[in-house]
Amino acid sequence: NDQSSIYTHRLRAYTDAILVGTNTAVLDNPSLTLRHYPGNAPLRVLLDRTGRVPLTHTLLSDDKSCLVFTENERILSQDNKQQIKLDFNSQNFIQNLLKVLFDMGIKHLMVEGGAAVLKSFVKSNCWDEAVVLQTKTRLQSGIKAVNINGRLHYKFELSDNMVNVIKNEKAS
Question: pLDDT over 70 for what percent of the chain?
């Protein structure tokens, strides 16, 4: 709903970077900007292992910065798009990714998905907090949400949506 959208953009306004994976970028073509809340837009981070995201998609074609982690570098048409090669097969992929981001000054990363990316962060135990928005509307299709085990820190309603903030008690 509109309130949830504003809340999500408010969360974005207080983070250093926001990350999505290839499938989300290809299917949703997100802009990952602040449109419903004022503030400084976070750095956009894309995991695109094989260069599957079309160069015409927003993250790679607009005038805003985007950091692309990949195994297959390709020519990007804009100077504000940076590529970093990373071994996606590494057992420590998420930790390696986070180290690169940390070394770049990124201390607060928001991971918006998709499901495979979220699952990787949860499996590697590299998350501190999850904000889970639930709607009362029955969704007929889509991908099942990632199961997040942690302690419910607090919850509140945004119109017909419920926001659950879950803390990771096992974070390393």
Answer: 98
> 73-92: per-residue pLDDT in tens?
888 877 899 999 999 999 99
| Termini Cα distance of the chain | 34
- Residue 139 DSSP class: P
Gyration radius of the chain's alpha carbons = 16
Q: Which two tokens stand for residue 136?
A: 């009362």
Query: What is the rounded distance in angstroms from the CA atom of residue 165 to the CA atom of residue 150?
Result: 10
d(CA 148, CA 103): 28
Q: Structure pTM?
A: 0.92
| pLDDT tens per residue, range 22-69 | 999 999 999 999 998 899 999 999 999 999 999 999 999 999 999 999
Helix, coil or strand: residue 5 = helix
Count the helices and strands in the chain (H runs, E runs).
5, 8
